[in-house]
Design a protein that fits this description.
By secondary structure, the protein is an alpha/beta fold. Helix content is 40%, strand content 18%. It has a single domain, classed as 3-Layer(aba) Sandwich (Rossmann fold), CATH 3.40.50.1820. It has 13 helices and eight strands. An eight-stranded mixed β-sheet has the order 1-2-4-3-5-6-7-8, with helices on both faces. The longest helix has 16 residues. It is globular.
């Protein structure tokens, strides 16, 4: 099934919105007339990713919520006006988007880097976050082996035209590589080879450098400040973080819950979309 045929029957739009000097690609779905009372859900993807990471989730979420899936700063088709992409910049970009749309408070579903950003946003701006779903979130440890795996696999796929390297980068995310469709490879390969993306790859990968990562880590003290009701979703075979990491995060965020998906890698929302969607709707409700 095509990525986009999964959205058949869903009222959605894709736009490139100016957000404080950065044109930002956004997929919006489930929008209702002003005053309808529909709550907003913000979807944030992982390192070198893009909003298509959530295409299996948007239709279900949009039945009840106003969904906003963003290409984060310097990712996908969203611009980076310049400079390294560090956590405070990602957080500010999301805040600027909320302000531009007049959204005072939203629920957040953040995967990997998106979970890191969502967690930091919830810690620093508690009034802007309703409920929080952190999907295989990064940013609580600085593991040189994992950082090198992310850095080298991404750079290889970006600097070579070999589609097999892009596929290999995506297969790193999955327990079952059959979840990497030819179309998903095509989408990411096209993004990776945009001249703007190639030129900005060092800025995008700066959090895989130890000095930057350690400064921006989501610390136990920050997680203890999170007031939003929080659900952590983790894959038992997550290649970028072992299960004990998830348990430590759950212990650090007051009142949080943890769900570990068996036979699952770094994209629970994609590999086990039906299970994830049911869990997310129950939690957000």
């Amino acid at each position: 099934m095509s990525l986009w045929t999964q959205l058949t029957g869903t009222n959605y739009s894709i736009s490139h919105d100016p957000v404080n000097g950065a044109l930002t690609r956004v997929l919006r779905a489930g929008e209702a007339p002003s005053g309808s009372g529909r709550e907003a859900v913000i979807l944030l993807h992982g390192t070198s990713g893009h909003l298509e990471a959530f295409v299996r989730n948007v239709p279900v979420l949009a039945e009840r919520y106003e969904v906003h899936a963003l290409d984060m700063l310097g990712h996908g088709y969203t611009e980076n006006p310049g400079g390294d992409l560090r956590i405070p910049r990602y957080v500010q970009h999301v805040i600027d988007y909320l302000d531009a749309r007049g959204i005072q408070r939203a629920h957040f579903i953040g995967e990997s880097l998106g979970g890191w950003v969502s967690g930091r946003l919830a810690a620093d701006h508690p009034g802007r976050v309703g409920r929080l779903i952190l999907v295989a979130p990064g940013g609580t440890v600085a593991n040189p082996e994992v950082m090198d795996r992310i850095r080298t696999s991404t750079r290889a796929a970006v600097t070579s035209d070999d589609r097999a390297l892009t596929r290999r980068r995506l297969e790193l995310l999955m327990h079952d590589p059959s979840n990497v469709s030819d179309e998903l490879v095509d989408v990411r390969h096209a993004i990776y080879h945009r001249p703007e993306f190639v030129a900005g790859i060092d800025a995008l990968l700066c959090l895989q450098q130890m000095e930057n990562r350690t400064e921006d880590l989501l610390t136990p003290e920050q997680m203890a400040r999170i007031q939003a009701r929080t659900l952590i979703v983790w894959g038992a075979q997550n290649p970028f973080g072992d299960v004990p990491e998830a348990h430590r995060m759950q212990q650090s965020i007051p009142g949080s819950a943890l769900e570990i998906f068996p036979e699952c890698g770094h994209w629970p929302q994609h590999e086990h979309a039906e299970k994830f969607n049911k869990l997310a709707l129950e939690f957000l409700a």
